[in-house]
């Protein structure tokens, strides 16, 4: 960058100093000053034709694809060096989409896109801009061309244009054998971002096949895939853009893969003995019978050629292959004559039968004339593998002449039972297990009589092979290992896993079985030693049994019950305290400013309580509120002989106002002691020794407005109870 700036500065000095003069006006790019983003400067026209100075030369703008905003999309700004902001310059726009797709503000030079654009429809627009004098209508500079490129967004998913695909691969191919290459195309811009960067993956078809995430090449992932077991496979391939990241768009295609046959199976006879009869008068070359062998291969690999091995009868018979039915036709090769001794009629002189004292009479029968032994019932090698009985031959002409021979028949095994897991395994996996860790070694057993060298193969069932938590590793020695695939397991999320394992034998016909293994998640120490596998251990601390947990829970319930009972009693006690007793002298006081009805009104309150000062002293503690602390009785200060009742009442009122235990509402305060030395002596008529006529109540008018009502009552010579002061 520094080199470029220095070179530009050198050229500017040469041109500006007059050392170099261009032959014609050429646009010059000045790198010393850079305009604001999305703002370009149009070159200004000078008075001399030989030299043109330009502030900036641009070649392209960018506009976002599929813009869905409510306002037109801002593209950029055109600005001329001759535009001094006085409104004398007008900007014009022409070219692709001018006026229909793009608009320009004639005064400011702002360019906007007025409709949504699709890069796949048109990737760029070529336009021309010019600055014109608004008064003379003449161009201020030559017309300049620029490009507006549509900036791509990820709005197109990858597509397989050649799908669905069909491919084939020979059976028994090794791991990594090439099958097919698929290709997906993305219409987004490959030069911008990851919108067109495609990653391939297999959604269906594992673990049989794999795919290269970058090239899309499909290869075999399992060895020894046998066409005779499964011939057709459907593989679902996904192509995802954005490099396979979250939020990318995806497309899928189906690949049908066929395993082609290889000659990997010998022909086999369904039974070991065929019984054929040939008349003695049969001519040479006549067909005696047909036998058939079975080859599970296909096409030319299944064509069979029959031959008679050297031995007895090899010179008497011949065998040829029927190309249409693939059967072996046995033909008579030559006739051998026989002159039986003592039997001129050429009839059989022996008779054969089974000794009924043996155990073979129910399962086998012997032809009395030919002496051939045949089965009467189906034989089960797993029930009885060997039969031992005797066959007796006697002379037809003399039945007393007999001969006995012991027959020992071994029942050959037919592969009719699939292999199974040898013993029930209690498989456990630690919560801290690592990927690739072998958690269990399993072996298989077959109820068939396995021939020497028979091999068992182990694999996951197809439905469990998609994102498995565990997998099966075949050790190829008739054992396999259960392998963890995850980095840790949680008993809280899932305690048990069920793993279907497919086991196949190598006999004919191939037998297989699916065995479901139960894997339990357990808690282990750092060395992998299992500590606990039961469910309750998830919630119990180490060392606590179920009985201990029940005892703890029972104690908690009892404590909660005690707390609830205590709260209920406290609430009931508080409610009883707030209830007013029937003996309370303030029970019937409704209005604190009610003057009452006089001594004749005995319904308002118990007036007897007013005449007994001891009642007041015994009820110092308030009964209408709950006391916060024990309040001691107030000590009545000594009253001097010359202290009047007004000072005493004011003192009591002040004490009541300053009492923190007083209720926050209006209440009745009763004062039954008037003191001694009062000029008016007692205000109460109770225990008075004088009559009302002897009393002078004029002094009550001097006590102020608080005692105006009292003074008016006694001034009218009406009888009231003055002991009650409110």
Automatic annotation (TrEMBL):
Residues 80-160, 161-269, 270-421, 421-539 form the Cadherin domain. The keyword Glycoprotein applies. It holds the Pfam family CADH_Y-type_LIR. Residues 1-25 form the signal peptide. SMART domains: CA (SM00112). It is a single-pass type I membrane protein. The keyword Transmembrane helix applies. It is found in: Cell membrane. GO terms for cellular component: adherens junction; catenin complex. GO terms for molecular function: beta-catenin binding; cadherin binding; calcium ion binding. The chain crosses the membrane at residues 538-569. Keywords: Calcium, Cell adhesion, Cell membrane, Cleavage on pair of basic residues, Glycoprotein, Membrane, Metal-binding, Repeat, Signal, Transmembrane, Transmembrane helix. GO terms for biological process: adherens junction organization; calcium-dependent cell-cell adhesion via plasma membrane cell adhesion molecules; cell migration; cell morphogenesis; cell-cell adhesion mediated by cadherin; cell-cell junction assembly; homophilic cell adhesion via plasma membrane adhesion molecules. Cadherins are calcium-dependent cell adhesion proteins. They preferentially interact with themselves in a homophilic manner in connecting cells; cadherins may thus contribute to the sorting of heterogeneous cell types. This is Cadherin-12.
